Amino acid sequence: MSTSNTITFILFIATTLLASSNAADNATTQPLFPAILIFGDSTVDTGNNNYPINTFFRATHLPYGIDLPNHEANGRFSNGKLIPDILAAKYNIKQLVPPFLQPNLSDQDIVTGVCFASAGAGYDDLTSLSTQAIPVSEQPNMFKSYIARLKSIVGDKKAMEIINNALVVISAGTNDFILNYYTIPTRRLQYHHVSSYQDFILKRLDNLIGELYSLGCRNIVIGGLPPIGCLPIQMTAKFRNIFRFCLEQENKDSVVYNQKLQKQIPQMQASLTGSKILYADIYNPIYDMMQNPGKYGIDTTFLVSQHMISLFC
Q1: Strand order across the beta sheet in which 167-171 lies
Q2: What is the architecture of the domain spanning 4-309?
Q3: Residue segments in the chain with a per-residue pLDDT below the cut of 70
Q4: Are 140 and 69 in contact (CB under 8 A)?
Q5: What is the C-alpha separation between 81 and 279, in angstroms, rounded?
Q6: What is the pLDDT of residue 2?
Q7: What is the pTM of this model?
Q8: Domain ranges, ordered by start, for the chain
Q9: Whose CA is closest to 312, among 155, 175, 148?
Q10: CA angle, 76 as apex, 74 and 79 as ends, to 5°?
């Protein structure tokens, strides 16, 4: 799903969460984090929407999953692994991160972490109302159920130790713009300028971080927005854009949002004692890939855009 630059960057981000370099030296034998916990949208949903959710955002057909071992779609909006899977494997946690709604989760699945993300979700509940996905604001409720089961397996003290030291990945926000603010007039009537809506979304994210912190999460990586104006769904939806050029204003909106997020993160961390909150740059690696496809062994940028970014739902 991701370019090598994106993977390298996010792996670097996660590594900097470690307290000592000695832990990195032991990466080949010991997990660098006891568990991985995932919140967000289709960029990180490993299959929750395959289970009883009344949504049409489902990755249940090829080419989704075509490069996985069984060559079958399993709910991931990717031809293969998603970033959570890559991180989990890189840090010797597990090879694939299962969705929390998967009915046959083993105790080991629970102990090493799961995914709560839902394709089509957003920080804004109105976004999920239109997609029928699990809103990001409701994903902590699943997390609470997870904590209860984790405690039943390893006990209260060990459970909190796992959560305190787990790697938490959050990736959402794109749907709030492409499926909501840019498309549905409701929020534009409330927030006349996109800047005001960005601030609203960032406040929702701030609330999420606070709730996850209260539940024990300490090591958190937050993904920024991609170049929204280069998503196929956006280029195609604009009838004037018959040559599929990127929509520069929407890309500028993404840049401004990401700048605000980067400025907000140190404030979040300062207010949450013991937390390590870091920003993962999604925009620049993807934009560079689209502008310089040859660097990545890509011949056709548009086709890569289809495969790499999908609908970003």
Answers
A1: 36-40, 167-171, 219-223, 276-280
A2: 3-Layer(aba) Sandwich (3.40)
A3: 1-28, 233-244, 300-313
A4: no
A5: 21
A6: 37
A7: 0.86
A8: 4-309
A9: 175
A10: 95
